[in-house]
């Protein structure tokens, strides 16, 4: 089990926002968990803005500020929102169990919406790129 699961959702989101969460705990699954928590507390657009701001700050605090990727961050919250809207579950671990692609094939999920040449090279890391294959559901 990943270390971030030692924390309640409230503790996890607070420590992430305060940049007191150990950076090695911020895995792909933790990234999805942050999206899940923010989406439970805020409307989609507000959650997207908070997530982008918090991840960018976390990257600047614990790195050199180059790991933050705006398009991946915005796309990931959109994907989590979609699966949450389809889910019959009540917790984040249950959501992952219901939709294992979120962990097992997240890159594949994104590549149904984006061509690799749109998603990965600059400017996608600093400027949000709209999906060029399949628009995210509204």
Short structural description:
The protein has 138 residues and is an all-alpha fold. It has helices spanning 9-18, 28-41, 44-62, 70-86, 92-98, 101-104, 106-110, 116-119.
Comma- or semicolon-separated keywords:
single chain; 138 residues; globular
Tell me what the structure shows:
- The chain starts with 8 loop residues before the first helix and ends in a 19-residue tail after the last helix.
- Helices cover 58% and strands 0% of the residues.
- Helix 2 (28-41) runs antiparallel to helix 3, helix 2 (28-41) crosses helix 4 and helix 3 (44-62) packs across helix 4 (70-86).
- It contains eight helices and no strands.
- It is mostly helical.
Topology summary:
Layout: H1 9-18, H2 28-41, H3 44-62, H4 70-86, H5 92-98, H6 101-104, H7 106-110, H8 116-119
Helix pairs in contact: 1-2, 2-3, 2-4, 3-4
Which geometry do the CA atoms define?
globular
Which sheet architecture does the biggest sheet show? none
- Uncertain segments of ≥5 residues (pLDDT<50)? none
Portion in strands? under 5%
How many helices does DSSP assign? 8
**Approximately how much helix is present in the residues?**
55-70%
Mean pLDDT across all amino acids:
96
Order of helices and strands: HHHHHHHH
Distance between the termini: 33 Å
Instruction: Count the E strands.
Output: 0
Structural class: mainly alpha
- Computed Rg: 14 Å
Could you state the oligomeric state of the chains shown? single chain
């Amino acid at each position: 089990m990943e270390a971030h699961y030692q924390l309640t959702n409230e503790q996890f989101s607070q420590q992430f926002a305060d940049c007191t969460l150990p950076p090695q705990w911020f895995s792909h699954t933790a990234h999805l968990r942050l999206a899940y928590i923010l989406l439970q507390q805020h409307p989609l657009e507000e959650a997207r803005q908070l997530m982008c701001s918090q991840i960018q700050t976390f990257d600047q605090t614990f790195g050199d500020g180059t790991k933050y990727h705006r398009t991946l961050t915005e796309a990931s919250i959109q994907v989590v929102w979609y699966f949450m809207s389809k889910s019959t579950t009540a917790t984040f671990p249950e959501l992952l169990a219901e939709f294992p692609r979120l962990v097992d094939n997240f890159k594949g999920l994104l590549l149904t919406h984006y061509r690799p040449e749109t998603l990965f090279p600059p400017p996608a890391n600093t400027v949000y790129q709209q999906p060029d294959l399949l628009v995210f559901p509204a």
